[in-house]
Amino acid sequence: MTMLTPRTPAELAPPGRSRRERRAAGLESRTRLVGERLAGLSAAPGVRALQSVDASPGGLTRAEAALRLERHGPNAVAQERAPRWYVQLAKAFRNPFIAVLVLLAAVMYWQDPADPGVVILSVMVGISGLLRFWQEFRSGRAADALAQLVTTTCAVQRRAGSGSLPTTLEVPMDQVVPGDVVKLAAGDLIPADLRLLTAKDLMISQAALTGESLPVAKADTRVQDLGQQVTTDPVEADNLALMGTSVTSGTATGVVVATGSDTWFGSMAGALVGERPQTSFDAGVRKVSFLLIRFMLVMVPVVFMINGLTKGDWDEAFLFGIAVAVGLTPEMLPMVVSANLARGAVAMARRKVVVKRLDAIQNLGAMDVLCTDKTGTLTEDRIVLDRYLDVHGNEDGEVLEYGYLNAHFQTGLRNLMDRAVIDRVGEAEEVVVDTRFSMVDEIPFDFARRRMSVVLARNPLVGGSGDAGPVEQAEHVEHVEHSEHVEHVMITKGAVEEVLALCTHMTDRGERVELTEQLRWHVTRIAEDNNRRGLRVLAVATRTITDPRDTYGVADEDRLTLVGFLAFLDPPKADAARALEALADKGITVKVVTGDNELVAARVCADVGIDVGTVVLGPATDALDDAELRALAARTTVFAKVNPVQKARIVRALRADGHTVGFLGDGINDAAALRDADVGISVDTAVDIARESADIILLEKDLTVLEQGVLQGRTTFGNTIKYIKMTASSNFGNVFSVLVASAFIPFQPMLAIMLLVQNLVYDIAQLATPWDRMDEEYLRKPRNWDAKGIGRFMVTVGPISSIFDIAMFLIMWHVFAADSTADQSLFQSGWFVEGLLSQTLIVHMIRTRKIPFLQSRASWPVMVTTVLAVLTGLWLPFSPLASSLGFVALPAGYFPWLIGVLLAYCTLTQLVKTWYIRRFGTWL
């Protein structure tokens, strides 16, 4: 594994950026300024931090706090609010096809208010928009229900007046103001950005901000501290506590130096409100919509002019042109898309996936790059003891035994690694801990020493281990007073360099040998090798005390004997490798973008089968312009030590490179990237702002669940494309046939009302498309909107139906003598039936690249609706409605000709399909 180190940061902002990109760059600049201010406060003495916000160690008076709350506003960051229901309703009708249909309906109403076509179009528009509104409104409410927000308070020192003593109050977090002195204890959320004034044994979980799986230690601090060295990243400062993090152990006080949008986190939250970037779904629908509208704008005037010039009836030609426009418009597209997405949302809900934005379902199917954090997705989000090693790197049960004794007998707050050791003992049969040990004293952990020790009595009068296990026996050990017959042993566990500095000897294959410089180099290399594998390593050492006493201190941690090492890891999920393999089989490239350590990230990724390659550190991306970052993101699999701004920029770079990008994350540090991705994916346990930014919420943080969502997304997308290609090609073929017939036939080849009815029956036949199944081969690859491909498909497949329409024209003209104005109803009825049945058959021909009915069968809803459409088409010329619609009964001799034309049509379509797939490599 190699690592790319940062270049010197530079401001590279090429001209010509979009408004969204300029806004993002401005927010990134603001975040850097906030970071620089915090870094300055970290480097300055604590007194300077108090002066910067005009505060004192005793806190503000209540009057001062009230004035500052009025001046600075509530301590809350920018959040995106769900639009009002009527705004959502209006947006549901914002679609180019709906606009076309409304325009056509208005023209038809202006021509004839009693025209049934007006009602038909109005119903289509209403159902489509209302269905879309209801699904998004309902799913939005379901997502909101996941956020069970409660009022959170924090402990603040305030004074009644300028001369009074400070008292500790519990105040709501949104009422914290700059200058407040906050008291922190284990379990507390950090309410704002704090400069620590005092701290003892303080451990803070920064996972929500950085993605690091382990808590980080903050320095023991006093009011008179002189600050620390300048750091470019506020999260690395050991005397700052930032909004969005939490205390896992220890105590502290800190002065609030920033609240709300002025905090480090708040500066990033500004990117999460306002207009979302256009996703690949939005761009695809827009391109396809305007492609079809352009066809309509060309074809309709041509049909209108030909009919007006050849027939001389311009009013009839106008109505016929309107009918052709309706025929060319896939008027059911909004409804089919909405039904598709609604069905997809219901199906995904059964698979523990909540869809907040319906469009995200198709983006999920189109996704070809998934960026994900490591913690909790690839790993189990818990710390385990991975190995216990002697000084040569071999597993040794004695090391685990000493580590267990140290962890079990300490009286302080056990950290995650202590618990991991205790849990591991229960699994290790070779470890024996018996009642020979009892507690004498302990030397607690502190961050200056970075170690802790326990002193145990080894009582020689108690022998044997008995039948009980190590944990059960240890629970029954009682604290015993010092006795001259009891031997004491000190067990020290802590950071490798700190413990090793106190060791004079080591245990080598059961023998105590002097720790020479050569052996010291050897054991250091063992620890470093495990660090490079992404493991957190602690050293374990002992000392047998020859002059036992009742109390011990730091000075007694000397002349230790190194026993070995304990190595810890956030273990990979058991099914992570299989899930990644399944995603790769579906054509999805997984990139890990984490704030965690690069060594840990590389180890975990290697364990789950990811080809790590060169790990790129987040700061290395700051010096790159957009083009350089696109190239780097394309070839990089693992990004580590990445801050929130860098995550979002990586996502935008991948999208700019033509990828449909999904981002899976659950922390504050993921929120901007979730919003900038084509599809943001979070989990129900995520922080509130991550859930707000996401499009899809998983009820389990599991890539296997995500894989099922991808398949559902591709099914939804495939069924949508089916409808578009079916209706576009058949409608184009019909209009092409109309052009030919209008030029050579002395009457209208079909009445306008017949075109509308044919279109309505055909559209109803396609309404079951969302319930169709997709061939397995189709689901194996990501699918994107391809307007050019749809146009090519339309002009290739559409004219096939025109060939057989013209054949039917000739049959009606020459065989059945429908060659005059007096017999035009027979001609029109014959073409109506053939046209409707051929359009209905095209549903089955287009829905699969295989041979329909034989190699691939449609779902039963599609079979039912297409059969009903065929029966309706055959029934209408003989029905009571026939005369009002302009139909006449067809002779019996018509039907053998009809069957022959339809069989020839299916055969030719299958041959063209085979050629098309061979030529262009795709079908749907």
UniProtKB/TrEMBL annotation:
This protein's UniProt keywords: ATP-binding, Cell inner membrane, Cell membrane, Magnesium, Membrane, Nucleotide-binding, Phosphoprotein, Translocase, Transmembrane, Transmembrane helix
Recorded name of the encoding gene: mgtA
Protein family (similarity comment): Belongs to the cation transport ATPase (P-type) (TC 3.A.3) family. Type IIIB subfamily.
Enzyme Commission identifier(s): 7.2.2.14
Membrane-spanning ranges: 92-110, 116-134, 288-306, 318-342, 790-816, 858-878, 884-908
Organism domain of life: Bacteria
Record's protein name: Magnesium-transporting ATPase, P-type 1
Natural source organism: Streptomyces yangpuensis
One Pfam family it belongs to: Cation_ATPase
Stated role: Mediates magnesium influx to the cytosol.
Entry keyword annotation includes Magnesium: yes
Protein's UniProt keywords contain Transmembrane helix: yes
Catalytic activity: ATP + H2O = ADP + phosphate + H(+); Mg(2+)(out) + ATP + H2O = Mg(2+)(in) + ADP + phosphate + H(+)
Region (Disordered): 1-26
Subcellular location: Cell inner membrane
InterPro entries in the cross-refs: ATPase_P-typ_cation-transptr_C, ATPase_P-typ_cation-transptr_N, ATPase_P-typ_cyto_dom_N, ATPase_P-typ_P_site, ATPase_P-typ_TM_dom_sf, ATPase_P-typ_transduc_dom_A_sf, ATPase_P-type_domA, HAD-like_sf
Topology versus the membrane: Multi-pass membrane protein
Signal sequence, start to end: none
Database matches in SMART domains: Cation_ATPase_N
Every Cation-transporting P-type ATPase N-terminal domain range: 40-110
